[in-house]
């Protein structure tokens, strides 16, 4: 189980309070598809991803960005049982969606950069550390059911 | 994953825009490296204080940023241009190259923080590729 100090819990809550999921979700996924173009392999059914503009204008990308970020937020209400919280989602990503779990890390990097852009220096180094620890825990849980 | 000429121009342009805040970005980058990845402090055990925001951390962050700016000027031949820096890192400092990735990530976060409008996905991918090439050039002499 991941151990959290009171300060870390406060930092993670503070970051989430600054995140508008409907805005940051799409931005994070768009950035991931642009910066790491091989991630587009999972979105063959999403239509036109052929240019950066197409990615940014694609409604399915935006909608899925909201889904993914909502999923990442779930852990906030279950910080002491992250592994079990994501067990079913991990099985889904492994056995149905066949997503290379390294992609979770890439999406989370893009999310951190989007959030940093929104928060500026209000995201202190200590806050960034707690935030990345949170994302690391979720990414680890999502990768656990891969065999 | 080498840089296209358009991406090289994007990198030069963004770094030029950044130059008024380069010291701040350098200092913040290293502060975040030691905060988010505390194992990196192992390279700074000779400092009295290696905590985020401390004077030695800020000063060294500025030094590192200076090196990155120098590399921008050598973007057409990073391996050749960074030969002596590579030797320094390989034979004297012996920094595990995995840390170059961690530093690059913190630098990207700081760029996004301080230049949110300018750090578009297009700038992001170009700078990310450049920092990866820089890391490769720095590791050139390791073995």
Biggest sheet record of chain A: none
Helix content of chain A: 55-70%
Strand content of chain B: under 5%
Q: Mean pLDDT across all residues of chain B, rounded?
A: 96
Mean pLDDT of chain A: 96
Helix-strand pattern of chain A: HHHHHHHH
**What percent of residues of chain A are in strands?**
under 5%
Radius of gyration from the alpha-carbon trace of chain A, in angstroms: 15 Å
Low-confidence segments of chain A:
none
Tell me the number of structural domains of chain A: 1
Helix count from the secondary structure assignment of chain A: 8
The CATH topology assignment of chain A is Globin-like
Counting helices, strands and paired strands, the structural category of chain A is: mainly alpha
- Tell me, briefly, the overall form of chain A: globular
CATH H level, superfamily name of chain A: Globins
Q: What is the fold named in CATH at topology level of chain B? A: Globin-like
Instruction: Compute the number of helices of chain B.
Output: 7
CATH top-level class of chain B? Mainly Alpha
Q: What would you note in describing this structure?
A:
The complex is a heterodimer of chains A (147) and B (143). With 147 residues, chain A is an all-alpha fold. Chain A has one domain (6-143): Orthogonal Bundle (Globin-like). In chain A, 67% of the residues lie in helices and 0% in strands. In chain A, α1 packs across α8, α2 (21-35) crosses α4 and α2 crosses α7 (102-119). Chain B has a single domain (5-139), classed as Orthogonal Bundle (Globin-like), CATH 1.10.490.10. In chain B, α2 (22-36) crosses α3. Chain B is globular. Chain B starts with a helix and ends in a 5-residue tail after the last helix. The A-B interface holds A 30-31, 34-35, 52, 109, 112-114, 116-121, 123, 125-126, 128-129, 132 and B 28, 31-32, 34-36, 52-53, 105, 108-110, 112-114, 116, 119, 121-122, 124-125, 128.
